[in-house]
Amino acid sequence: MNRKELIVHGLLILGWFIASAAGVAQEEKAESVTPIPMLSPPEGNMTFIDGVTWCVARPGAPQEDLQNALDWACGPGGADCSQLQPGGRCYQPDTLLTHASYAFNIFYQQNGNSDIACNFGGAGAIVKRDPSFGSCKFLASETSAAFSPTLGRAWMAMVAASLNLIALRLRV
């Protein structure tokens, strides 16, 4: 490889690392199969300004809407609903409202606590009171950082190693 090709190769690797760290390289969710209409995201997430937030199922939402949203969150939405299975910490009480609340919150926390990530076609609501109960603990916005310090250090180490390799090859 000549010097120009090495630089381009290095930049491509760096871009891949940045995209991976930002979650762009993750498998994209099939929005075309989303049964829930979504609104345009707000200009910015204003929910965290006042502190810790959770997303729960709206008590007055129609049962059919809650079930569709729960199915989507635990399926195409990618929320880890394993604790809602029989024997799981959040299985009891076995109600649609509590199961949907847990699933909605997992999706909300995994997607940056944005207002739109708690919409669920109007079936979700952002609350400032911890909905955890018994042994069922809901993740909180404060504790669900998408970019952990460990991930940050690992990512920076990979970028540094790649840049060092590029620099060594450019000197040759």
Overall mean confidence score, pLDDT: 73
Oligomer status:
single chain
The major pleated sheet works out as: 2 strands, antiparallel
Strand content: under 5%
Shape: elongated
The ordered string of helix (H) and strand (E) elements is: HEHHEH
Classify the helix fraction into a percent range: 40-55%
- How many H/I helices? 4
Tell me the number of strands.
2
Spatial ordering of strands, largest sheet: 1-2
Give the uncertain stretches in residue-range form: 23-48, 143-161
**What structural class do helix, strand and pairing data support?**
mainly alpha
**Distance N terminus to C terminus?**
11 Å
| Cα gyration radius (Å) | 20 Å
Protein described:
Mean pLDDT is 73; it is low at 23-48 and 143-161. The protein is mainly alpha-helical and 172 residues long. Strands 1-2 form a two-stranded antiparallel ribbon. Helix content is 41%, strand content 5%. The chain is built from 4 helices and 2 strands; from the N terminus they run H-E-H-H-E-H. The termini are close together. The relative contact order is 0.19.
Layout: helices, strands, pairs:
Blueprint: H1 3-22, E1 54-57, H2 63-74, H3 96-110, E2 124-127, H4 149-171
Antiparallel strand pairs: 1-2
Helix pairs in contact: 1-4, 2-3
Properties at a glance:
172 residues, two-stranded antiparallel sheet, mainly alpha, elongated
Brief description of this entry?
The chain has helices spanning 3-22, 63-74, 96-110, 149-171; strands at residues 54-57, 124-127. By secondary structure, it is mainly α.
